[in-house]
Amino acid sequence: MITGSAGHLGEALVRTLESTEHQAIGVDIKTTPFTARAGSIVDRGFVKECMRGMDTVIHAATLHKPHVATHSRQDFVDTNITGTLNLLEEAVAAGVTSFIYTSTTSAFGRALLPANGAPAAWITEEITPVPKNIYGATKVAAESLCELFQHRTGLPCLILRTSRFFPEADDDKRARESFEDANLKVNELLHRRADIEDIVSAHLLAVEKAPSIGFGRYIISATTPFTRDDMEELRINAPAVVQRYVPEFEAEYVRRSWTMPQSIDRVYVNEHARLQLGWRPRHDFQSAIYRLRAHEDFRSPLARAVGSKGYHTVTFSEGPYPTESTI
Predict the structure, then answer these.
(1) pLDDT in tens, 271-295
(2) What would the pLDDT profile of 255-267 be if each residue is shown by its tens digit?
(3) Has residue 321 got a pLDDT over 90?
(4) CATH code, domain carrying 190
(5) Is residue 254 part of a domain?
(6) CA-to-CA distance for 115 and 283, rounded, in angstroms?
(7) Residue 60: inside a domain, yes or no?
(8) For a 10 Å CB count at each end of the chain, is N or C smaller?
(9) Domain range enclosing 296
């Protein structure tokens, strides 16, 4: 079962599994070519029906950060917490052997932001989340439910905290005004973005490894070229640090009139996922530079196929979605 099959990751998972021996059943509140069962995971009866015959659940359905200003806190609790609880309970009842929960690096919240003058933050699974909005709070709560169920029932459950992979324009107005969209996304491959093809491969490896691991949390982001020793300089002179690791970037950026930010404030570290899951992400900043130099798209074919989805049925006057909640 793939929940959230109308979304970016859900569709990418169903697309990928269609070419394998696995039978992927897409579940979503929206009807799409990749959704086999339309309904809400908040509806316990619907979840129970969908769970029949399943041996694996990849739970990617969620209300996201883009919904914070357009949905109530109760909506987030209903979908992200109650929906996850419904899936966990019915998965146990159905004898599911692998439950993969798609979380987010946004769960770290305020822990991502270093103090003024401090080095860039080196973000590993050991960092304690400090949620900054209802999205982060409900994702952390759902992670705790997964951990509880694994402990109490033995349900193999792995949590993947994914970094940015959406193709939509950035919600930060300053970022949109400072960088061309592709420039911004390639920059982010250094420290806070992944290609959806790599995120899919991490999920499928998690399905295989969950029974032997039992429980674990993993950061899923492109492999950074940086080390912990770079964090101080990265905060004040990021271009110089990048130049040491990927010197080819400078000429390509000049050719495209692109820029590198002067400061990078956090770096997501995927070492735990590479070691425990055997994950080998194929897309990073250096590979993107090589493709750009060859006049190719830096995104994977899967990312291009899934494309942009948006998060709302309406168009907003400024930005891809509102960011300030009045609810």
Answers:
(1) 999 999 999 999 999 999 999 999 9
(2) 999 999 999 999 9
(3) no
(4) 3.40.50.720
(5) yes
(6) 30
(7) yes
(8) C
(9) 2-306
Structure tokens at 326: 């009045």
Task: Lowest mean pLDDT of 115-129, 183-197, 307-321, name the range.
Answer: 307-321
Per DSSP, 313 falls in state: S
Count of CB atoms within 10 A of residue 92's CB?
16
Give the pLDDT of residue 176. Answer: 87
Cα separation of 165 and 303, whole Å?
9
What tokens were used for 229?
Answer: 């020793």
Total count of domains within the chain: 1
**How far is the C-alpha of 244 from the C-alpha of 234, rounded, in Å?**
12
Q: Which of 291, 315, 314, 285 lies closest to 304, judged by CA?
A: 291
Say if residue 323's pLDDT is above 90: no
pLDDT of 327 above 70: no
> 317 lies in a domain?
no
Q: Give the chain's radius of gyration (CA, Å).
A: 20
- pLDDT at res. 326: 46
Single out the residue of 112, 210, 166, 178 nearest to residue 309, CA to CA: 166
pTM above 0.85, yes or no: yes
Residues 6+ apart with CB under 8 A from 20: none
Q: How far apart are CA 27 and CA 11, in angstroms?
A: 10
